[in-house]
Amino acid sequence: MESKFNVSIILFRMFHYRIDFLNLLREKLSENDIALNVYYGKPSDESLRRKDSERLLWGKEITSKVITISGKEVMLQLPPLSTVKSDLVIAMHENRLLINYFFQLFRPLLKMKFAFWGHGQNFQSNNLDGMRERLKRKLVHQSDWYFAYTDLSRNALISADYPENKITVFNNTIDSKKFRSALQEVTPSKKNEFLAQLGISQNACVGLFCGSIYPLKRPEELIECVLRIRQSIDNFHLIVIGAGSDAPLFEKASQEYEWIHFLGMQKGEQKSKAYSACHVILNPGLVGLNVVDAFSAGKVFVTMEANFHSPEVSYIKNGENGIMTTHSIDDYSQEVISLLQDEKRREMIETRSRETADEISLENMVDRFVDGVKSALNY
Length: 379
What we know:
Blueprint: E1 5-11, H1 19-31, E2 34-40, H2 45-50, E3 60-61, E4 63-69, E5 72-78, E6 88-92, H3 98-110, E7 113-118, H4 131-139, E8 145-148, H5 151-159, E9 167-169, H6 176-184, H7 188-198, E10 205-210, H8 219-232, E11 236-241, H9 247-256, E12 260-264, H10 268-277, E13 280-282, H11 290-297, E14 300-304, E15 323-325, H12 329-341, H13 343-359, H14 362-376
Parallel strand pairs: 1-2, 1-6, 2-3, 6-7, 7-8, 8-9, 10-11, 10-13, 11-12, 13-14, 14-15
Antiparallel strand pairs: 4-5
Helix pairs in contact: 1-14, 6-11, 7-10, 8-12, 11-13
């Protein structure tokens, strides 16, 4: 029996953290007699290095090709012809995705709705008044709906004069329950064994960096910060989990300093053990979904101010559920030292971190997204 509505989502690649969301979204939409199809391109060389792509078993990997035009890369994707029969197509809000222009141009003729999902603007752009961002703000008005990551995204859209009543803020997140369940499987003996394997004593102060490693994450500044922390706390250790273009910086540091432990890309039990063993999450650079992992684990997430943070930075309430210092190695180092030496304050922030994870749960994200789909369809 055919569903009342058909919705198609087109992604330029399948991010590993989207699998749980899409599985649950498909289930919830089906309960509302809405069928969901997901199409995605092959991972790029950089994403392969980061090891952050996966396959969606019921989705469809489509032909995609990167083309260079006047020195700029654009992506051509070819979803199945049946996609034009969708009642709603949802695509990523990126200028370089050529398929978006097709749906924007022909959506009246095809009698379909077209929606974007995304940040609302490029928060990593060095020039918000440049041609790319002006084009992005112009094209957003050729959509019928917008699925915005956070309130920060909504504010950016409203600033671009996009209708507020056509915006769904879904609070981008990951499955915190799944991660919490994995953390509960880490017994004290497993945690101690993990520390012992790294040569870390049970009474050590441990910081953790976990995420992709590239310049916007400020890896060099993190190394400088932990060197200063170590001068004040002689049993401090840093564990680094991740992969990316700047991973060699941490590899080299781990060879020079026995208290820096570079583990490369880790998932599953090893990642859970690292979160269980640490006292603080150190992330001086770009904040993204990794802050949700910190909330889920009930750990204090410490970052620096920056004009390039992703929308998820809006979840951080400085001094309440996390810490954001000025862009200063001195301030950052001193704040971490203070946290490690003040257990009562750290525990207070940890409690609020766990509460924040509950507020931005995957289930709530899916419910908001489903409501947005129904609104876009006038259902």
